[in-house]
Amino acid sequence: STKIKKNIFIIARQHASETSSSFICEFIIKRLTIFNCFHKIFTQFNWHIVPMVNADGVIMGTRGQASGDMT
Q: Which residue in 7, 21, 37, 52 is a FRET match for 58, CA 20 to 30 A apart?
């Protein structure tokens, strides 16, 4: 039988001003893909990583959306 993998979701920059989350996301990606000691955990789960959720806000330098919505 095929074992179904669990999913792990990581999102960063939901709010454009939260710059540190991009660095943490990059750190996680590098550790999972470069270092052999993380190979087991990398292959054990399905990884869904979104390094910048609010790209509009990052480009505009605001905390909100391109539409002006601050939610």
A: 7
Helix, strand, coil fractions of the chain, as percent rounded to 5: 40, 15, 45
Model confidence pTM above 0.85: no
Element of type H or E holding 54 = none
Q: How close are the terminal C-alpha atoms of the chain, in Å?
A: 44
Q: Please tell me the distance from the alpha carbon of residue 71 to that of residue 64, in angstroms, as a whole number.
A: 7
Residue 50: other Cβ atoms inside 10 A: 13
23's tokens: 């660095």
What are 27-46's pLDDT values in tens digits? 999 988 898 888 888 899 99
